[in-house]
Design goal:
The structure holds two protein chains of two kinds. Chain A is of the alpha+beta class. Chain A is built from twelve helices and twelve strands. The model of chain A has no long low-confidence stretch (mean pLDDT 98). Classes of the chains: A alpha+beta, B alpha+beta. The structure holds flavin-adenine dinucleotide (FAD), iron/sulfur cluster (SF4) and FE2/S2 (inorganic) cluster (2 copies).
Chain lengths: 333, 212
């Protein structure tokens, strides 16, 4: 592991000022915030991350879950994943988020992982994690061996000829469906980023994964007021029953009146280069009868632009069935 | 070591003591290579009392860790994980290193009563926090009910994952968890057992849960 200086700021301004000295907030950052450390320490051990300074943000008092004035929820960036998933209001009004988090990682990791860190967890692509290999995300311009190599678990949506890495987060899939907002404080002040704009497609800059700039500290995430009568479900399919990343997952929210879908939100996980909101599926559901045919049509629409790699063609049909089944189960809940 | 030797051992759960007292060539060579801290402690060779002294490491920083109710003032390399600090610096070797990447659960300890993976934590993050390792749960003479249940249910084979399993299981007692076996399995999925002692592990946990 690269040697670093460990700093424990107690106010956000000091943390932001220190982080603003980094040459980038993306791959290759020389200053890193540390939430739970479950992504960062893992990658520092592999020398994929080599920060010179590590800023522990756990003493910045960003660990609260509070109601917002409009009836939504404000979630501090260092709230632990387990505390969020087990929060009574999340279990009652944002069930899909609770389910998504509890389907991710393990109880120990959820006790450590923070909301901010989960938003920024990195791909599990084996080449990215191995500094002996080339990888455009880790070393821009070096190539993408996954395209001709091991890509069974990699993405089928949002890929480019430069990177096909999957965003592995479960929490983010639910937040995409819930239309969360990310609040960032930087050296130039505060700003809000809607969830769909936060993560970037790889395009020809796969090392740039989010809109964050040096010094940008995620302070909290807000959820809009709950949708009345919304039936919610997170379904995750994986190689083993637990403690495994998704091959395909779906976060769905349905409101049904007199057998017709009046409101639908859909996002997919394990298949996209970013948490994959599907407006195509939502359009296919809106106003339609809540039945199997509609659900299958929505799944067809969601995967219409999917592109398979050499080893992951099965994921296209797997994702279709995952979404179809999730919609059916949600409609019956 | 013959089968007879094995049979003649008393039902003493302390595997280290077993190795040391069995006097076999295997145990002897182990001792020469690396003297386990507990053995050294038992022999009165090491003082595990708080000390500001540490190996003279360049760039080392001071830290106070509270482990099993005892304060340790240490100087450590900032890169030291909580796991390496517990095992190598404080020399409590009950906590195990399996994968060192968050994938197996062998390194599970409690921080402020919650179970975490000590391999994905820096020791420096826990200055002043309350850390509990398997050594802090109970002793061979006064076992924690979970330790006793693991013994009674034969919930291990090689024992390598066991301290992590027990730390997880004890934390689980205070977490929201359904009463059925499936719920226990799901919340214990972060602890891999290479020997596959899973069904007995679940049995041990359920036995304790029934009695609380
Ligand atoms: C074995 C294993 C299995 C896993 N399985 C799953 C799974 O099934 N599903 C799943 O979704 N996840 C899984 N994970 C990933 C886990 O959820 C993430 O590692 C975790 O959410 C990251 O959170 P953290 O607080 O530990 O992040 P950290 O490691 O602390 O930080 C990650 C990144 O975010 C940055 N950062 C952190 N907080 C902020 C902030 N407030 N502002 C700006 N930048 C910040 C850090 O600088 C760092 O670059 C798994 C991890 C492991 C090790
Ligand atoms: S898929 Fe992306 S992360 Fe994986 S090797 Fe290619 S460029 Fe790197
Ligand atoms: S050693 Fe920590 S999880 Fe494997
Ligand atoms: S008892 Fe051998 S790994 Fe679990």
């Amino acid at each position: 592991m690269h040697i670093f200086e460990f700093i424990r700021p107690t106010d956000p301004a000091a943390a932001i000022a220190a982080a603003a000295q980094s040459k980038t907030a993306q791959q290759g950052a020389d200053v890193r915030f540390m939430g739970g450390g479950t992504t960062l320490i893992d990658l520092m051990k592999l020398n994929v991350e080599t920060p010179d300074r590590v800023l522990d943000i756990n003493r910045l008092s960003l660990d609260k879950i509070e109601d917002t004035a409009d009836g939504g929820l404000k979630i501090g960036a260092t709230v632990r994943n387990s505390d969020l998933a087990n929060h009574p209001k999340v279990q009652k009004d944002y069930l899909v988020l609770s389910q998504a988090i509890l389907n991710g990682a393990s109880a120990q990791i959820r006790n450590m992982a923070t909301v901010g860190g989960n938003l920024l967890q990195r791909t599990r692509c084996v080449y990215f994690r191995d500094t002996a290999m080339s990888c455009n995300k880790r070393e821009p311009g070096s190539g993408c061996p996954a395209i001709t190599g091991h890509n069974r678990t990699l993405a089928i949506l949002g890929t480019s000829e430069h990177c096909i890495a999957t965003n592995p987060s479960d929490m983010c899939v639910a937040m995409a469906a819930l239309e969360a907002t990310i609040h960032v404080q930087g050296s130039k002040g505060s700003r809000v980023v809607s969830f769909g704009d936060f993560h970037l497609l790889p395009g020809n800059t796969p090392h740039r994964e989010t809109v964050l700039e040096p010094g940008d500290l995620i302070t909290h995430v807000t959820l809009p007021p709950p949708v009345v009568g919304s039936k919610q479900l997170y379904l995750k399919l994986r190689d083993r029953a637990s403690y495994e990343f998704a091959l395909a997952s779906a976060a769905v929210m349905l409101t049904i009146a007199s057998g017709r879908i009046t409101h639908a939100r859909v996002a997919l996980g394990g298949v996209g280069t970013k948490p994959w909101r599907s407006p195509e599926a939502e359009t296919a559901l809106a106003g339609k009868p809540a039945n199997d045919a509609t659900f299958r049509q929505a799944a067809e629409a969601a995967l219409r632009n999917a592109k398979a790699q050499s080893e992951n063609k099965f994921k296209i049909e797997l994702a279709r069935r995952c979404l179809t089944y999730a919609l059916k189960m949600a409609s019956m809940s | 070591m013959s089968n007879d030797d094995l049979k003649s051992q008393p039902a003493d759960p302390t595997r280290r003591k077993f190795l040391l007292t069995s006097g076999s060539g295997v145990a002897a060579s182990l001792v020469v290579g690396y003297v386990p801290a507990l053995a050294r402690d038992a022999a009165g060779e090491v003082d595990l009392a708080p000390t500001a002294e540490g190996p003279n490491i360049e760039g080392a920083v001071p830290i106070t860790l509270r482990i099993n109710g005892r304060e340790h003032s240490l100087r450590i390399d900032p890169r030291t994980t909580l796991l390496d600090c517990i095992r190598e610096t404080v020399t409590l070797t009950g906590t195990k290193k399996g994968c060192d990447h968050g994938q197996c659960g062998a390194c599970t300890v409690h921080v402020n009563g919650k179970r975490v993976l000590s391999c994905l934590n820096l020791a420096l993050m826990h200055d002043g926090e309350e850390i509990t390792t398997v050594e802090g749960l109970g002793t061979p003479d006064a076992m924690h009910p979970m330790q006793a249940a693991f013994l009674a249910c034969d919930a291990y084979q090689c024992g390598y994952c066991t301290s992590g399993q027990i730390m997880s299981a004890v934390a689980l007692l205070k977490e929201p968890c359904g009463t059925d076996d499936a719920s226990v399995k799901e919340l214990m999925s972060g602890n891999i057992c290479r020997c596959g002692a899973y069904s007995n592990i679940v049995a041990a946990i359920q036995q304790v849960r029934k009695n609380v």
